[in-house]
Each structure stands twice: as C-alpha cells, then as structure tokens.
Specification:
By secondary structure, the protein is α+β, with helices and mostly antiparallel strands. 17% of the residues lie in helices and 36% in strands. The longest helix is centred in the last third of the chain and has 19 residues.
Length: 653
C-alpha cells in the first residue's frame, strides 16, 4: 500500500513539464518540448516503445518544434546565442524586453547539429494562438512574423539615453516574411499599413489569411481586428472577409483552399480565444455561424480532408472535449469528454487517424499521449512518464458543483476538498478562486499547482465558472457584456451560499482571491460584502476610468461594457469601479502587483491601498520591480505565492 505524502515546495520544484507534441508524418515518433528549472529543450519519443531522446540542449529556450513536410528536418524557435534582449513596442514605449530575441533554427533529423536559419533584427514573433512559423508544402520556404526593428538613429538615441518617446506616434508593425531555405533570401510579403497578429498560409502557398488591424497597438486588436486575405506577390489589395463587433482569431484554410474557418467571441485576452466556430468562403461569401447555440467553446480545430467537417478541441462544462463538427449540417459527434486537460494544437500523421496530445488531470501531471481515432471512438495510449515519482503525493478530491444564481440561471464550478479530508463530515474553510479574463476558464489541471498549499492546510478551494466564462457556449461567454461586476458577482456569491447550505463551507471562514479580472472581482467583492475574512487581489482593476487612460489594451473596457465609444460607458465605469465603494470594505486585503504592468496598470493598486489605509482597514501592498502582468522572476514568483498563501491561511485556520 502506498503511503501518500503532502508534496513540499522542493518536491514541486523538481517537476518537469511537456508541451507542444507533434507527430511525424509516418506516425513513428513525436517531437515535443520539455521544460525544467534550467530551461526548455526539444525531445523526441518513439511511438512504438515510448523511448525518449533529447534533441537540443543548452541554456535558454528551444520551442515550437515543427517538422518539414518530408519529415527530414526539424525547425524550431530559440533564443540561444542571442546577444541582445529583443526590442518590444507594446504601448509604443521604446524598451528592452526581459526575454532574448528568438530566431528560427534547423536540425537534420538523421544526424548533425542545428544551424541558425534567420537573423532578423528584432527576432521572430511568437503569436499567442497560431504558429510562429509555417513550412511551405514543398519544404523549400518558411513564412514567419517579425516586428519592425528600431532604426539606427533610434538605437543610438536609446544607447545615449536620449530616449524620450512620443506616445502612440511611431507605430512598429508586425509583418509576414518568407525565407528561401536554399538562398537565404528573406522577403517581406505584408502590405504596408497592415499589422498582422496571426496568419495562415493557403494550401498552394500563394495567399495568406491573417488577423489584422490598421495599427499595432494591443488595444487595436479589441477595437478593429478583422479577417483579411492577400496574395503573397501583393498584386491585389487586401480583401476584408469578415469584421464585426467581436474579435476574430485562428484563421485556417480548408485543404482545397475554398474556405476559411475561424473562431470569434467578445474576448478579453488575445491569447485566450475559446469561442464559436465560423466559416466563410475565401472570396468572402457564404458566411456561416457553425456552432450557433452550442454549450461548449471551441479552442482549436483541424480540417478534415474532405472539407466537410473539422475535428475540434473544446472547453466544455468545466472539462474538455474532442468533437467532430459537420460544417454542412452543423451536427456534432462527441469522441471524448472528461474533467481533464489536453493540449489543443495537434496534427495527424499520414494515416489521418493518429495524433499526439499532452494530457493532465487533477491526479496526473502532464505527459504525452497517443490517440488513434477510428469511426466511432478514440483509443488512448500513454507514451511518457515524465515525473515517475508523482504517484506518492496526496491529491485532493474534486467534484463538479452546480447551483442556481439569483435569477435562476444554472452556474457550474469545480470544488477541491482539502487533502485527506475524505472521511470528514465537517464544514471547511473556503477559498474562492476568481479566474481572470473574464472570457476564460479554469479547467482541472494537475493538483500540485497554485492552490496545493491551501488544500494541504485544510482549506477547500472553489472555482466558479461565472457568467462570461468559456466552456458554456457563446451566449454564456457574452452574458456579462455591460455588466462586469453585476450578475457575474451574484453567480459567485450565490455559489458560496449553495456550498454553505450543503454543509461544505464554513460561513465564518471564507476568503477570496484572483488575478487580473479575478483581481478586479476580488476588489469588487470586498466592497459588496463583509462575509470574507481575507482577500488577495493580484494585478487587479480598481478604477475603470483610470484603466482606460493607461492600459495598453485600451478599448477592451469600452467594448466589454457594451459601448462603441468611451462616452457610452462612463456611467457603467463609475457604477462598477471598486474604488467608488471603498468605504464599505472591512476585509483584510492583500494587494500584489507588477511595477510595469501595462494590462492593469499599478496606479490603481496604489489608489485602492491608500484608500484602505485611510479607512484603517488592514491591508498591505506589495509591488514587484521589473514585473508586468504577473510575476516571471523566480524570487518574485516564490514571494508572491508565499504571501498569498500566508495571508489566507493565517486568517482562516
């Protein structure tokens, strides 16, 4: 019998992670990324016996492994040998990114060392959704994204500290480039005045379908992004195929080149684009909302060869699903649905039946799995065991809970019980985890994560999928438009009531926390109720009008409040700004924020903290130097986690 133990912080440090598996065309091997404390490298695994071999090594990050069409060469993105940090121009501030610039490298699969393919001045852009680079079908060219570099004059001024900037006056565009592998010639194929967020190359490699905007500011994605096509030779003007009040993402050509499928919703983050599936002809006709009325959200998809259907990875009622969606009848055939998490970007081998994913669930860490798809079902086979010692650690019991909100709408959430509490009939102290976004979700990842220490200290964790969450269809995801802090807050609060009524949650020992939109919801919650004994707001929003002025996603707070112009929503900003109700707060509140957060600027955190101090409410503000929207430096990550957990544990236990 195994004696399970509570994992320590040192135990968790030793865990490795895997991502981005890509099966070879012959189905004999899978390349993937292995992440450890010292960096990221690319490995390969045999599909016959699971034997693994490291393909790349060294300090830094090797990512995005993509095999050439003939399978003989591996392309990947790496920041190895990078002498300079990349320039970034988010928010149009000339600065250096904390990450090294990335270039494309090629590695022969039979033998030999990798060689550097690109040397573009500002490196390769890794889009948040589609691939950073794409092979042409004949394997002779590669298309990729890169952002305009700073000029020599700008470089010199930067080095001389003559670095004043004119706000939003000197935009730097991201463009598509194509490199010839034989000659090394690199050509920009993007039209002037068109910023490219992500792209898809047509099957005949003559056209591009892109998500674009006129300006390269992050806020432009929320207010003016659209689906556009243009030819590689730029003979004709770009054609706008689709634009609406919703954002669009992940365009993919059909195998015959006659259609483009894409995802769309009112999103809150460019890298979180679970939404509904749409199709349109490559000439701009026959627009179709394929998943209209569905109760899941499509995260990614791959066209089937006959162009009549797609095979989709979906977030679905708190878990994930694999669904075949008929594009003619809109019919849906479920192949798999579980409270588990799988990677969504996969390809089939030449048989069109086998593919690879990373899979994890509450009890099992990430590993590579092979899936064989037949006409009626999927056959799963675990290929790797990256963390063989994981079986000895205690894992919490998890269950799905459902309740009715104050207007009668059914809401779903996940409940994690404290470790080793299976035989207990008592009520538990409860921590409510409000997710970010809000157009996102929390699905059941492996337990040894952010909340494990709370669970180990006897605190239950409740994760509600409030209105605005993904995984429940487009209508639900957009149900909070114009009402951020309204019914979504009531969904959360009524969920706590339901757990108290069931005897699960102790009404005298409640806490709340979250980051980004979850940070806003935490601040909002403590202004609306005194039921919480502790709160931790990370990277939150406290004043919507101030957010509008400085956030680099400027425009989202207009669109998501249901307006087309700031003047449409000023009254709603005032109505739903936590700072305006700060006199109501009694809850001890810890505020954690990055000094350089451009998404949710830190000024709001200072204002909320100062107001709480003026009112003699117990509070602390911790600001992390050099950090943006979330901590990245190891020491800061550890500090943030410890402060968060100690603040909750010391007030609930």
């Amino acid at each position: 019998m195994v004696n399970f133990k509570v994992a320590s912080e040192n135990d968790m440090k030793k865990f490795k992670s895997v991502s981005d598996p890509r099966i070879s065309t012959d189905g004999e091997s899978i390349v993937f990324v292995m992440s450890a404390a010292d960096g990221k490298n690319i490995w390969i695994a045999s599909t016959r016996n699971g034997e693994t071999k490291q393909l790349t090594s060294g300090i830094g990050s090797d990512e995005v492994p993509r095999l050439s069409p003939d399978g003989k060469t591996l392309g990947f993105v790496s920041n190895r040998n990078s002498k300079n940090n990349a320039y970034v121009d988010d928010w149009q501030i000339k600065t250096r990114s904390p990450s090294k610039e990335n270039q494309i490298y090629l590695l022969p699969m039979d033998s030999g060392e990798s060689t550097k393919l690109t040397s573009v001045p500002n490196g390769i852009v890794k889009p948040r959704n589609l691939d950073a680079f794409v092979w042409s079908d004949d394997g002779r060219r590669i298309a990729f994204l890169s952002t305009d570099p700073f000029t020599q004059d700008e470089e010199k001024r930067f080095e001389d500290k003559d670095d004043v900037f004119e706000f939003e006056k000197n935009p730097k565009y991201t463009r598509i480039y194509v490199i010839d592998l034989e000659t090394g010639e690199t050509t920009c194929v993007s039209p002037e005045g068109l910023h490219v967020w992500e792209f898809s190359w047509s099957p005949d490699n003559t056209k591009f379908a892109v998500i674009s905007s006129d300006l390269p500011y992050e806020g432009s994605w929320f207010t003016s992004c659209r689906l556009v096509t243009f030819s590689e030779n730029l003979e004709n003007k770009p054609v706008i195929l689709h634009q609406s009040k919703r954002q669009v993402a992940m365009p993919k050509w059909s195998p015959d080149g006659n259609q483009i499928a894409f995802l769309s919703s009112n999103y809150s983050d460019r890298g979180s684009v679970d939404g509904d599936l749409f199709t349109i002809s490559s000439t701009g006709n026959n627009f179709k909302h394929v998943t209209l009325g569905s109760r899941f959200s499509v995260r990614n998809f791959i066209w089937n060869d006959d162009c009549s259907s797609v095979f989709a990875t979906c977030t679905d009622q708190g878990g994930m699903s694999l669904i075949e969606i008929d594009l003619i009848t809109n019919g849906q055939k479920y192949y798999w649905n579980e409270l588990a998490v799988i990677s969504d970007d996969y390809i089939f081998d030449n048989s069109k039946t086998r593919f690879a994913v990373v899979r994890e669930d509450i009890a099992n860490p990430k590993d590579i799995w092979i899936i064989d798809k037949n006409s009626d079902e999927l056959n799963w086979k675990q290929l790797t065991k990256i963390n063989p010692g994981s079986e000895v650690f205690s894992i919490p019991k998890m269950e799905t809970v459902r309740w009715k909100s104050i207007d009668g709408k059914e809401i779903q959430g996940l409940l994690l019980y404290p470790l080793n509490s299976e035989e207990s009939n008592e009520s538990f102290p409860l921590y409510l985890a409000a997710h970010g976004g809000p157009t996102s979700s929390i699905i059941p990842n492996y337990a040894l994560g952010r909340w494990y220490n709370l669970l180990a200290n006897g605190i239950a964790v409740f994760i509600p999928s409030f209105r605005g969450s993904t995984g429940f269809g487009l209508d639900f995801a957009e149900a909070n438009i114009g009402d951020l802090g309204g019914m979504d807050w009531h969904d959360i609060n009524s969920g706590i009531d339901s757990l108290i009524a069931k005897g699960v949650a102790d009404p005298d020992r409640l806490a709340i926390g979250g980051g980004s939109y979850g940070g806003f919801m935490t601040a909002w919650a403590v202004t609306q109720t005194t039921r919480f004994k502790a709160a931790v707001a990370r990277a939150g929003i406290y004043d919507w009008r101030a957010f509008h002025g400085k956030s680099y996603i400027n425009g989202w707070e207009v669109v998501h409040f249901g307006g087309s112009d700031f003047s449409d929503v000023i009254d709603l900003w005032e109505k739903f700004s936590p700072i305006n109700y700060v006199n109501n707060v009694t809850t001890p509140t810890l505020i954690l924020h990055g000094e350089l957060d451009l998404t949710c600027p830190v000024e709001g955190a200072y204002a909320f903290y100062r107001s709480l101090k003026d009112l003699n409410v117990e509070t602390e503000l911790v600001v992390y130097p050099r950090e943006g929207h979330g901590t990245e430096e190891k020491i800061h990550k550890k500090d943030e986690r410890q402060r968060h957990d100690n603040w909750i544990i010391n007030r609930l236990i």
